[in-house]
Every structure is written in C-alpha cells, then in structure tokens.
Design a protein that fits this description.
With 189 residues, this protein is an alpha/beta fold. The protein has a single domain, classed as 5'-nuclease (Rossmann fold, 3-Layer(aba) Sandwich). It is 39% helix and 22% strand. It has nine helices and eight strands. The protein has a six-stranded parallel β-sheet with strand order 3-2-1-6-7-8, sandwiched between helices. Strands 4-5 form a two-stranded antiparallel sheet. Strand 2, helix 3 and strand 3 form a beta-alpha-beta unit. It is globular, with a radius of gyration of 18 Å. The N and C termini lie far apart (52 Å).
C-alpha cells in the first residue's frame, strides 16, 4: 500500500495569547495534549512556541522542549513597573486582567513564519490576535495557510475573513484541558 504524502505543517504559537485566552474561559491548556493534537490532527512536524522569558520559568521551557516544542524566548518587561512610573500606583492595580509582565512575541512569530516558509507546505497560526492579520492574509494568498487556532470566541474581528480556517480551541476544551491530578485526588478524599 502506498502511503499518501502529508504536507509538511509547521505551527507558530503565541503562547501568551493561547494561555490567557483559555484561562479567561476558565481552563488551562495541557501542553502535552496540545502538541499531540497538532501532530495527530494536522500533521505538525515543527511547533514553534513563542514565549516571554522569565528566569524563574526555566523548568517550564525545558518541559516544553521535552514535549516537542521549539521554544523561542523573548525578553520580557515589567509593564506594571513602567506604568507605575507614569501614573498613580492605585490606577495600575485597577486592571487586574492585564498581565504585569509582557513578552511581546508578535514580531518573532512573524519573522519565523516568513523565514521558515521555504521549509513548510502549510502553516498553523495559534493566536486570536489581530496583529497577525497581515501574516495570515499573506499565507492564505500564497496557499500556505492551513488553520488559525484561536483560544476562544473572542478573537479579533480582523480575522473574520478567515472564519473557514479558524479553529476555536475552547470548543476542544474536553480534549485539550489540563487536569490537576493532585487536586482531583484531594477532592476524592
């Protein structure tokens, strides 16, 4: 039997967008399950994980690498510290939904997607951020856009023209959610 050649698919993951977007909906992504899902469902051979670097998260970065992600680290800045210098500290703490540390990975994700383009047939962009509109538009025009994976229904309206390519990960929560086994054991006791 002749095995059908699958296209070579790369995933480019905005980890903060995915992480915060799923947590906003009340769940956490199980990174092992997500990597297997990308490979099993879409044939992803390389999954680039773009993430802000914090020295205390070294073990996490190693774990992600062990799971098969190609971890691309970006220096972070303390947004709360910068804002505190500009405004009254009380105002800074009013918006608790915003992260206090920011590692803006958008430019790196776009750069890698373009730089690696000769090496893949199709690309998956994992983010609901409208900042990736131009990249998504370009990949679609050249026939290389496989999917856009948004963490939830609140993805940017700029991505609406690509709705037929959008996979909402909140709809796959049962399949991709992290379950803290220690917490489950404690509940049972």
């Amino acid at each position: 039997m002749i095995k059908k050649n699958r296209p070579n698919v790369y995933a480019f993951i905005d980890s903060q967008n995915l992480n915060l977007g799923s947590q906003k909906m009340g769940w956490k992504v199980d990174w092992r399950k997500f990597r297997h899902f990308l490979e099993d469902q879409y044939g992803v051979t390389k999954a680039y994980m773009f993430i802000g670097y914090m020295s205390e998260n070294e073990a996490l970065y190693e774990y992600m690498h062990e799971l098969g992600y190609l971890v691309v680290l970006k220096p972070t800045i303390d947004v709360a510290g910068l804002e505190a210098n500009r405004q009254n500290i009380a105002e800074v703490h009013e918006d608790r939904d915003k992260p206090t540390v920011k590692g803006n990975v958008d430019a790196e994700l776009v750069l890698y997607a373009m730089k690696e383009q000769p090496n893949y047939d199709k690309a998956i962009i994992v983010s609901g951020d409208g900042d990736f509109y131009s990249l998504i538009e370009y990949l679609d025009q050249v026939g290389k856009l496989e999917r856009v994976m948004a963490p939830n229904w609140q993805y940017s309206s700029l991505l609406k023209p690509y709705e037929n390519k959008i996979v909402r990960l909140d709809k796959l929560r049962r399949k991709l959610a992290y379950h803290d086994k220690k917490r489950i054991i404690k509940k049972e006791k």
